[in-house]
Amino acid sequence: MDQQLRTELEAAAFRGLVQHLQRRTDVQNIDLMNLAGFCRNCLSKWYMAAAAERGVSMTYEDARAVVYGMPFAEWKAAHQREASAEQQRLFEETKPLHAVIAGH
User: What is the pLDDT of residues 28-39, one digit of tens each?
Assistant: First the structure.
């Protein structure tokens, strides 16, 4: 497999993941963090970092809009729920396993 094809396949997989997360608004970011160690915000930061590596200027809010499919404030108002004490406890417990994102 050449690098161009690999890049195209990786991009398609990323788009599929983003589309899936846009449909699954019932899944909260804290649950993703607790189970997988990354969430929509992590994807947004990786996206923004990739843009910066290629000299593309992008704000965090711009990157979030790509991943969330709308401005984050709009998504938050429509879909985000208050985290339970158990979710917050698990978040703190799993912090060592959370994604490492350069610059954040």
Answer: 999 999 999 999
